Amino acid sequence: MYEPGEGDPGEARARRQAERIRAAVVAAYAGAPRMAERLRECGLVPEAAGGLSSACSPPAPRLLPDLSAGRSLGGEMRRDPSAGGIESLRRLPILRKDALPAAQGRALPFGGLLGAPPSTLRRIYISPGPIYDPEPRRGDYWGLAPALHAAGFRRGDIVLVTFAFHLTPAGHMMDGALDILGCVTVPGGTGNTDVQARALADLRVTGVIGTPSFVFALLERAKQLGGEPAVEVALVSGEYLTTALRRRACEEFGIRVTQAYATADVGVIAYECPAARGLHVSDRVAVEVVDPETGRPAGVGAPGEVVVSLLEPPYALLRFGTGDLAAWEEGECPCGRTAPRLAGILGRVGDAVKIRGLFVHPSEADRVVLTFPEVVRYQIAVTRPGPLDEARLFLELRPGADAAAVCAAVASAVHERLRLRMVVEAAPAGAIGEGAPRISDRRDWR
Ligand SMILES: [Zn+2]
């Protein structure tokens, strides 16, 4: 492990997080006027003695996941993994990412959320929106070093970074952490595939960083150009990494691929360990997974929006709604890290459809249904003939497929992995158009 705290027992971790939340609130009050106002509006004030208290009601009770939505967890009630101080912040309204450009516009450049003068920063980035992202002058500010270490990057590695080094922070995020780990950065940036593919072999690059699709394109191009890549490890982010792609990287190129979840606003939120059984939440943030409609904790296993509180003053980004959809992973991780794990990023909240109280994202459905080689295309039709939603899953199958057997197998996979019962039936060839939505919401809300 990179940091001793990564293996701390749960109680020590919760105490540390509660202390960091308190410090972030105190810092917001001291220097970030807009966040101080938001905190004051909902009655959250830092006590002089050092605690965080609510001005108008007793402290919130420890919250249990809301299981009323119907997702069975084997009958056992499990505590929300985000607990550890964050419940004290739950009354603070979520600050949504898509509201950030307007908020910044009202008080340029950082919307009254930065508790330090811009002149003290190391860099300022411009993300789409536009959103101005501050980078304070601090070692591994973005928290990438533990993620890169968990991915196997070590001192002396020559690392090609294929994220952008202009406007947005991804390239510099990686560079700062690689420097701390003692790795050599090759700032490749985006595009220039041939130049980078050649450099991969010429420089004996041992580590690559980028989106899964670009990293693969590079490796394949390097092979076509006759080079012999010596890459051993890759850290990917920004896109979903399929199991098939990870396996191919290992079998075809002998590369260990690991994922990290980071955003331009916050930096690292969670990262995979060698066990690759979910992404451990970084110590620098407090993460909640909430039902996007009610704002209540989604509970273990149920998808919801990732809400992040950055515990790295001076940027007072508390209860920041990322718009990303994820679910908590269950159980302990064999790697020894004790931080809770996200099962992976399932997509954007806006694309998800709520069926019988559960958010289902098309990419999540893809991962379940399209693993069956007999399935060409599918569509989930959601209707509400009575008081309850009804979901029917239509499958377009390859010629010669055993329709009854495939439908039964898909129904059981959907029940197990999406935790929804659906009627699954074969559709005639061509019935589902190529551009048809994977989830068709036919409920009439009038
Ligand atoms: Zn682990």
Automatic annotation (TrEMBL):
Entry keyword Ligase: yes
Gene3D superfamilies: 3.30.300.30, N-terminal domain of ligase-like
Domain AMP-dependent synthetase/ligase: 177-309
InterPro entries: AMP-bd_C_sf, AMP-dep_Lig_C, AMP-dep_synth/lig_dom, ANL_N_sf
GO MF annotations in UniProt: ligase activity
Flavoprotein keyword on record: no
Any Pfam family matching the protein: AMP-binding
Keywords: Ligase
Highest taxon of the lineage: Bacteria
Chain ranges of the AMP-dependent ligase C-terminal domain: 357-433
Entry-linked PANTHER family: BLR5969 PROTEIN
Descriptive protein name: Phenylacetate--CoA ligase
Organism expressing this protein natively: Candidatus Segetimicrobium genomatis
